[in-house]
Design goal:
Blueprint (H helix, E strand, L loop, with lengths): L1 H11 L1 H4 L15 E3 L5 E3 L8 E6 L4 H16 L5 E7 L3 H11 L5 E4 L3 H5 L7 E5 L5 E6 L4 H12 L2
Parallel strand pairs: 3-4, 4-5
Antiparallel strand pairs: 1-2, 3-6, 6-7
Length: about 160
């Protein structure tokens, strides 16, 4: 049922905002409010000063499942120099917690329960990843799963800014 709801979301809502103003490599990342499980929230701009990996995913997405250990490792390996925000698309806190426990992953998850963040970032497929520099400028947009080599290459470019 969730897959059908997400497919409808993509088919109906995303095309309306696919040409969102200013959303491109080299442009400022839109400042959105992110909600953590349990109700705490933060703005994306709260993370300025360090580069940010803004990663959109879902528990039912095969490529997301395969890529998530790489994203979690990135969060653990670079936590002092990089902020990783794994934005879950429209699932419950319990579903996400159970999934992460089953996968034995520790990850900084934010919840996009109503697709507001996904719409703002024109997420038309998942996984989708935005690499944002320490000044809040989008430096890379990736639709689809990263390989370790591709992620390392794009991160090296991100840290060069």
């Amino acid at each position: 049922m969730k897959r059908i709801a997400f497919a409808l979301f993509l088919a109906v809502l995303i095309p309306a905002c696919a040409e969102g103003p200013g959303l491109a490599v080299g442009k400022r990342a839109p400042d959105v409010t992110l909600s953590a499980p349990g109700g705490l929230s933060a703005k994306l701009s709260d993370y300025r000063g360090k580069p940010v990996v803004l990663h959109f995913w879902a528990t039912w997405c095969g490529p997301c499942i395969r890529e998530l250990p790489l994203i979690a490792e990135l969060d653990t390996r670079n936590s002092a120099d990089l902020t990783v925000l794994a934005v879950n698309c429209a699932e419950t806190d319990q579903e996400v917690a159970s999934f992460l426990a089953g996968m034995k992953l520790n990850l900084n998850v934010m919840m996009d329960r109503d697709f507001l963040v996904s719409r703002t970032y024109n997420v038309d497929a998942i996984p989708q990843t935005y690499l944002i520099d320490s000044e809040g400028i989008i430096r890379s947009i990736r639709v689809g799963a990263y390989t370790p080599q591709e992620l390392n290459r794009d991160l090296a470019a991100l840290f060069a800014y």
